[in-house]
Amino acid sequence: MPLPPDLIADLHLSDLAAEPQWPSALVAGAAHYADAPLRAMPSPIDGALLGHYAPATAGLVNHAVEAAHGAYLKWRSVPAPLRGELVRCIGNKIRQRKAALAQLITLETGKIVAEAEGEVQECIDICDFALGLSRQLHGLTMASERPQHRMMEQWLPLGAVGVITAFNFPMAVWSWNAMLALVCGDAVVWKPSEKTPLCAIALQRVVEESVDELSERVPAHICQLILGEQAAGERMAAHPLLPLLSATGSTRMGRSVAQQVAARLGRSLLELGGNNAAIVTPSADLELALRAIVFAAAGTAGQRCTSLRRLIVHDSVIDTVCARLTQAFDSLPVGDPRVEGTLVGPLIDADSYWAMQQALQAAEQQGAVRLSGGGRLEDGVPAGGHYVRPALLRVRGNLPVVREETFAPILYVMPYSELLDAIDLNNGVSQGLSSAIFTDSLREAEAFIGPAGSDCGIVNLNIGTSGAEIGAAFGGEKDSGGGREAGSDAWKNYMRRVSNTINYGDSLPLAQGIRFGQG
């Protein structure tokens, strides 16, 4: 199943698709092809090949970083509102290609059409958000204790920023980082997941065309793309010309990246795993809660970092909730994500399927009772894909397997009797990304979102754990990395702060009343 010719044309990729293989990198406006063994690019829908590429070599990674650094030296002096104009142009081109980009996401990740279109819309939204920020990158002015002195802080461009993204959001997470970095005056080097290179190539083409349109005012080659595996990411983490590395993926990957970046005293922005929980209290609106739970647990085939993994339900309603969820999970339409009405597409690959099966086996060995799902579907779905029915298990609490994140649609349901016990269960894992509570009690709600409540970076009330908007900072605590992207003041990640003291008088008083020498 190679890419359809009309899709290739809509994405403006005809020149690259004409080659026997896809490029290993798009650097300094040119396609580069590494002399390395080819990697197959299968679609999770049916395993059919979308093409091949050779992972970028160390030389290509260095070339990309050096090219980005060179572009940054020019881009940093371009006024921020003009940098916003580039982001506006990128956003408009994404709008024009929304349907084609969403189709590509579906082919490469197996997302249903509605979710793929939602991801592209997220790219558009962050472009709009970053455009507004381009006129609001402000510091502060502070009163000085010295006469005829003024203090202020400035936020200045940081440098070339490295971005490593995961397969599950192959476009949105790049846009969260790249659009803010661009308006902040930084250049970007992007290494996408090795499982979703075509989504990256399509977006890189959007950027290249946007830069070309504004070539009289925008320096060339401010964004570079390298396609590679772990080794390429490690080279980026170690590179001294990348003062910031933003990485999204597993906690294991994040630890490795953080250590490599810290060894050279660089900055890292980490968005890592989540083991997200929701609490259902006796006063909860069950109809609302059940709708939210099913989407959060089964949407994107459980392959969001914010997917619901653990459901903590009060003793008085747990039997009802389990019965209703069993019915819902058993009836969810699982199948080809391109078909209208499908709500759950395939897992990304065989490794994900087997990780899910191992987790289910371990859970049952540890005393879990399976209520629904978990098995592979082979009838009525495309051959070659790994389709599963979302699994529902009842457990006593945070079993060892429950404390580990499995990137698949598994929902563990556990009971509680007192709210403090439920909060302890919510916080009783090493991850701290997203959480939620369903309640009509003001006291319960405030307890959960307050300082003694959830220890996660995202704490929701009467909505699920997934589906964040770009207006609020996104990220988590503990093993979830501590990073924050999009929203609020996340732009400060991509800039350096400078403190200035300005003497507009003709004397030189010292701070703290110090007298030194004459005068």
TrEMBL record:
Aldehyde dehydrogenase domain sequence ranges: 43-496
Annotated catalytic residues: E271
Documented EC number(s): 1.2.1.3
One MF annotation (Gene Ontology) recorded for this entry: aldehyde dehydrogenase (NAD+) activity
This protein's record includes keyword Oxidoreductase: yes
Alphabetized UniProt keyword annotations: NAD, Oxidoreductase
InterPro entries given in the database record: Ald_DH/histidinol_DH, Ald_DH_C, Ald_DH_CS_GLU, Ald_DH_N, Aldehyde_DH_dom, ALDH7A1-like
PANTHER family named in the record: ALPHA-AMINOADIPIC SEMIALDEHYDE DEHYDROGENASE
Quaternary data: Homotetramer.
Family membership noted in the UniProt record: Belongs to the aldehyde dehydrogenase family.
Protein name according to UniProt: aldehyde dehydrogenase (NAD(+))
